[in-house]
Write a structure and sequence with these properties.
Layout lengths: L26 E3 L1 H11 L4 E8 L2 E7 L5 H12 L4 E2 L6 E2 L8 E6 L3 E4 L29 E4 L11 E4 L14 E7 L1 H8 L3 E2 L2 E16 L8
Parallel strand pairs: 1-12
Antiparallel strand pairs: 2-3, 2-12, 3-10, 4-5, 6-7, 6-12, 7-9, 8-9, 8-10, 11-12
Amino acid sequence: MHKILMAATLLLASTGAANCADAKGAKTMNDNTSAQADAKYNLPPGTYAVLDTEKGVIICRLFEKESPVTVANFIGLATGTKEWTHPRTHEKKKSRFYDGLSFMRVIPNFMIQGGDPLNNCTGGPGYEFEDEFSSGLTFSKPGLLAMANAGPNTNGSQFFITDNGSKPTYLNNKHTIFGEVVEGMDVVSAIARVPANGGIAVKPVRINKVDIMKIMPKKKAAK
């Protein structure tokens, strides 16, 4: 049985940790750009995280209704609209958090884990926030995007994506699920299978950038 944990002793907590970031940094797709996105990805209306990695692109639909606080936190960090504190320098920042980080923990047929500025599974954004669990969201299939943590209500910035062949139902009600992969499961599997020692990638897979894309419903043509 695998566990998805961060070192609790090195997590930085602060008051007001559950403050929700807004989606000001999201790219709201107008009719023209929405049509282009639909043509390229064939995506229905919704909010998506586009993870551009050195192994390829992973696109995740975000569960805004089911996990609103977690999604808002992820969007805020990704777009640089939410303040965070670097765990090494303790410098407060308001910049794109995930750009240039990596997937440092990789376990085939289980998951890939990223979102740590220290790149050793112990770092975070300098705050914690509570779990969000929905009865309709369980680890019943691969390709789920969820928060890594060090125990109940210790979410920060680290996340994981379940690999092909993975249905870790023992993680239900322990890790907040806030999205699912809609494009790029082959990339997830490729990352999960890079050389590793004890689940830690010998060479972490770089996340070049994380963009947030919002596709709006198409307007009906006037009769």
